[in-house]
Design a protein that fits this description.
- The protein is an alpha/beta fold.
- The protein has a single domain, classed as Rossmann fold.
- The protein contains 3 helices and 7 strands, in the order βββαβαβαββ.
- Strands 5-4-3-6-7 form a 5-stranded mixed sheet, with helices on both faces. Strands 1-2 form a two-stranded antiparallel ribbon.
- A hairpin with a 5-residue loop joins strand 1 and strand 2.
- The longest helix is centred in the last third of the chain and has 15 residues.
- It is globular.
Length: 113
C-alpha cells in the first residue's frame, strides 16, 4: 500500500487505498446512522459498541449491503479496549480514521498502531 507521511509524523494511505472508519457507538442511533452512511460513501467500517448484539446487528447490516466491515465489542472508556479496537482496524485494513457518533467525520483523526 502506498502511504504518505504528514508533517506531524502520521502516516496516511495513498490515493488508491481503501478508506476505513472506526465508528464508536455504532450499534444504534446516530452512531449506527454514521456507520451506514460511511459505508454507503465507500468506507470500510469497523463497528464498535458496548452491546454485542447491537454491534453484531450493525455489522450484519453492512455485510448484507455488501460493504466491508468488522466489529468490536468494548467500552471505549477503557484504554485497553481502545487498543484492541485500533489493533483490529490495522490488522483488518491496515489503516483507519477514528470517528465517534458525536463527530461523525467532522473531527476524524488518524489511528496509529
Amino acid at each position: 500500500m502506498q502511504t504518505t507521511t504528514t508533517l506531524d509524523g502520521a502516516v496516511s494511505p495513498g490515493r488508491d487505498a481503501q478508506q476505513v472508519a472506526v465508528v464508536t457507538g455504532a450499534g444504534s442511533g446516530i452512531g449506527r446512522a454514521c456507520a451506514l452512511r460511511l459505508a454507503d460513501d465507500g468506507f470500510a467500517v469497523v463497528v464498535n459498541d458496548i452491546a454485542s448484539e447491537r454491534a453484531e446487528e450493525t455489522h450484519g447490516e453492512l455485510e448484507k449491503r455488501g460493504r466491508p466491515s468488522a466489529f468490536h465489542v468494548g467500552d471505549v472508556g477503557d484504554e485497553a479496549a481502545i487498543g484492541v479496537l485500533v489493533d483490529l482496524a490495522f490488522r483488518t485494513y491496515g489503516w483507519c480514521m477514528s470517528t465517534s457518533k458525536e463527530s461523525c467525520m467532522e473531527s476524524a483523526l488518524p489511528c496509529r498502531p
